[in-house]
Structures are given as structure tokens and as C-alpha cells.
Design goal:
The chain is mainly α. Helix content is about 45%, strand content about 10%. It is built from 8 helices and 3 strands. Strands 2-1-3 form a 3-stranded antiparallel sheet. The longest helix is centred in the N-terminal third of the chain and has 23 residues. The protein is globular, with a radius of gyration of 16 Å. The relative contact order is 0.16.
Length: about 200
């Protein structure tokens, strides 16, 4: 069964003013749709057809650029939409908060490390918060549409939070001010969803 573009869990204007409606229309409807279409074309007729995106990425031949770029783009954006909410912001609670404090000393220290990974990612890419098999958390940046599910990419582990720092994610509203966009992202993080992903993968 072919991959399909996931529907947004909120209206395209719901994250404004932090992420504007026009950016969401282009980012979701054009960029993510493009990755979805090209991923399906890349896996058609191969042994990857019918497998989950996680399985495809974890067993990826990273020399397969079509699947690496488009599979990563499909997965990363699917994560990105789900970890944002118009009712987001604030700080995590419960087990996720405890894990953040254990791994980074405090939420403030985590925010600084995650923000720095996003701000300093050279060119296009992502910053991720990943949970390792021992339940610890780690922050890393990845170029282009790579992510830590791929063999020998990033910090390993399973991404539970990601921010897109490709220019198409923010340039209409923030131009070259990536740090302002990264700061605004913290106002829409859906910590309940991130916490749920943490519990499933720790």
C-alpha cells in the first residue's frame, strides 16, 4: 500500500503567528506531498514496498539517495506536524520531564542545547530529540532529510521531537532570522504528544 500524505491535526492557520498559514500551505501541501509522491515511486516494485517507513529507514542502504531523501522527508515531516499544536508551549510533565532533567540537568539546559542544534545546523536540515534504548535522551542535528533512524546517522535512537530548519519552513515569515523561528517553535510544541512518543520508545 502506497504512503499517503498525512492530514494536519489542526487548521493551516492554527499555529499563527508562530508559523503562518501560507508557510503551512506550501510546506505541507507542496513539500511534504512531493516527498510522499517521490518515496512511493522510489520503492515501487522493490522489497521495501508495503513496509513501514520506520522499517525502511532503519534498514536503509544510505547510498540509495531517492529513498534516503524522500523517505526521510516523509518521516521527518510526519513527525513535525504531530509534535505541534495551537495549544502547545510551556514545559513537559511527568516521565518526559524527569528524563529531560536526568539527561540535560534541567528543561532550560535542554532548550538551549536543542535550540543550538537547530540554529547551528549548516544549510538545510533538522534538529531532533531522540530517546535511546536505555531511556536516556539525546539531541542531535542532521543534514538535509536525514534522521537518526538511518544507520550511522546522527545520535541514533528514535526521534520524538524534531524541528525543520530548511528555509522553506520559515523564510516567508522570518526571512534569514532562523533563531527567531526556533524560539517561536517552543510556543507550539505539543509536549503531551512528545511525552507519549517517549513512553512508547523508551
Amino acid at each position: 500500500m502506497a504512503f499517503e500524505l498525512p492530514q494536519l491535526p489542526y487548521a493551516k492557520d492554527a499555529l499563527a503567528p508562530h508559523i503562518d498559514e501560507r508557510t503551512m500551505e506550501i510546506h505541507h501541501g507542496k513539500h511534504h506531498q512531493g516527498y510522499t509522491t517521490k518515496l512511493n515511486a522510489a520503492i515501487e516494485g522493490t522489497d521495501m514496498e508495503g513496509k513501514t517507513i520506520e522499517n525502511i529507514l532503519m534498514n536503509l542502504d544510505t547510498n540509495n539517495k531517492a529513498v534516503r531523501n524522500n523517505g526521510g522527508g516523509f518521516y521527518n515531516h510526519s513527525l513535525f506536524w504531530s509534535v505541534m499544536s495551537p495549544n502547545g508551549g510551556g514545559e513537559p510533565k511527568g516521565a518526559l520531564a524527569e528524563a529531560i532533567n536526568k539527561s540535560f540537568n534541567s528543561f532550560a539546559d535542554f532548550k538551549e542545547k536543542f535550540s543550538n542544534a537547530a540554529k547551528t545546523q549548516f544549510g538545510s536540515g533538522w534538529a531532533f530529540l531522540c530517546v535511546q534504548k536505555d531511556g536516556s535522551l539525546e539531541v542531535c542535528g542532521c543534514p538535509n532529510q536525514d534522521n537518526p533512524l538511518m544507520p550511522s546517522v546522527g545520535c541514533g535512537g528514535t526521534p520524538i521531537l524534531g524541528i525543520d530548519v530548511w528555509e522553506h519552513a520559515y523564510y516567508l515569515n522570518y526571512q534569514n532570522k532562523r533563531p527567531d523561528y526556533v524560539e517561536a517553535f517552543f510556543n507550539v510544541i505539543n509536549w503531551e504528544e512528545v511525552g507519549s512518543r517517549f513512553m512508547k520508545n523508551k
